[in-house]
Amino acid sequence: MSVNTIIPKKGEVAFKWFNKYAGIVITIPTKTLVVDPADVNPKMFQTVDAVLLTHEHYDHLDETVVKDIFQRTQCQVIADSTSTKRLRSIIPQNKLQETRVGAEHRVGEITVRTEPCNHPPASTPVTFLITSEDGVKIYHTADSLPFPEMKRLGEQQKPHLTFCTVAIAPGASPQTGVEIAKLVQPEVAIPYHTASKTDLTRFAEMLSKQVPNVKSQIIEQGKTYKYPVREMS
Q1: Is the separation of the CB atoms in 187 and 161 below 8 Å?
Q2: Residue ranges of the chain with per-residue pLDDT less than 70
Q3: Fold category of 13-224 in CATH
Q4: In a 3-state reduction of DSSP, which class is residue 113?
Q5: Percentage, residues of the chain above pLDDT 90
Q6: Model pTM greater than 0.90?
Q7: Which helix (DSSP H) or strand (DSSP E) does residue 138 occupy?
Q8: Max Cα-Cα span within the chain
């Protein structure tokens, strides 16, 4: 499996889910972002402008993978406080940005805003709202459970795409993923963070009944999709 090589056009975003957790490659016309690279061969990432890290758990942070990506690409690394501490001996200070809720970071013309996360086992977990230069908004929820502030984010930011955790993380299920979609009200809700196709299908079925105004999109690991959503490879 190689990294996404499709260059989206203006107003488009391409993305690929590369593990059974929250690992996503996001390609916007001018930049490529990698979120939570773990359980993956780092050689698949040839061009990377920034790595985003939501928290320190093994399925989201692998210091060896981050080091390899950085050494080959010299990318920015934007990480929660705990992950930042673990990377200080690996990533140069001028390339490592510690982030906290409410912070905004620039990757070229892309804005990365750090939002809260409801994942109690982690020390300083965060989620990310990524806005492309064309205004396409992607809400990456890490493995967060739903929480009330997601409603505020949805009303104020109106994400086009939201990734919803449906399994593996403590307390997560297809129903909690649906609750995220209810709160955020994105244009498209995408289930992830599971190794089970059944979880993905259940999410889509439940979403269509409970939140019929939000579209669901089941994606497969290793395939590239575009927003407006369509499978590319």
Answers
A1: yes
A2: 1-6, 229-233
A3: Metallo-beta-lactamase; Chain A (3.60.15)
A4: strand
A5: 91
A6: yes
A7: strand 137-140
A8: 49
